[in-house]
Design a protein that fits this description.
about 230 residues; about 70% helix; globular; two-stranded antiparallel sheet
């Protein structure tokens, strides 16, 4: 009974966030229509990107998951952080530590690649949504940061209308659930089960939000600063 009560807030997380996404899409839609119909704020019809085909979406997700160095580096780094935070039995050797780190890095990469494939490839193809990030047309730092964070909850459809980001939500939940296949529990850390799945899901959404703000929205501006 105690476990059920503890898990209840996590169980309500996904539907609550989905309802929030629907509300946000409905709230942003009227402002979006005051610009050019079906176009982003400050964009003309001609500035709209060409819609991606289903095959192109899936191809891009495979390239993003497997042909970039970032997923491999992040998986290795987060595995090291996880191992450093966990209790180390006194009888473990350096070889054991390295093997555990490699195993953790592989599991992290499996979860990351599953997230990318489903959230940026398969589900956008299924739901007819555009997986590409749309940068803000605003100048204010706060407005741009808010826009970036909101793109976790709303996105553009292939017709360029704003709608709840079903693809991202479904993709992250699918990857979180699939992680139960390769994850295993460690002392003091439950990584298998409904509660662990929802914690991973929440963590993925938080990471997506941070990635949007730092790298996708302001990343190009930061690159320009260092180039000059």
């Amino acid at each position: 009974m105690l476990k059920v009560r503890l898990a209840l807030p996590h169980a309500l997380l996904a539907p609550a966030l989905l309802l929030f996404a629907v509300a946000m899409a409905n709230a942003q839609a009227p402002a979006d229509k005051t610009q050019t119909p079906n176009a982003a704020p400050g964009q003309s019809q001609a500035a709209r990107p060409t819609p991606l085909t289903a095959g192109r979406k899936i191809e891009r997700s495979f390239r993003s998951a497997f042909l970039r160095p970032t997923p491999y580096l992040l998986s290795a780094f987060t595995a090291g952080v996880t191992q450093w935070r966990e209790h180390r039995p006194p009888n473990k050797t350096r070889g054991d530590d390295f093997a555990d780190w490699g195993s953790r890095a592989a599991r992290n990469f499996a979860t990351s690649s599953a997230s990318t494939l489903f959230a940026e490839g398969f589900y956008p193809a299924l739901f007819h949504q555009d997986p590409r990030y749309e940068r803000s047309q605003q100048k204010s730092f706060a407005r741009r940061a808010l826009h970036a964070a909101s793109r976790v909850f709303v996105t553009r459809g292939d017709d360029w209308r704003l709608e709840p980001n079903y693809s991202l939500f479904a993709g992250e939940m699918t990857a979180s659930a699939l992680s139960n296949v390769w994850e295993h529990n460690t002392p003091g850390h439950d990584r298998i089960g409904a509660d662990a799945t929802l914690r991973r899901f929440a963590g993925m959404l938080a990471t997506d939000m941070l990635t949007n703000v730092v790298f996708r929205e302001f990343g190009p501006d930061i690159k320009k600063i260092f180039r000059h």
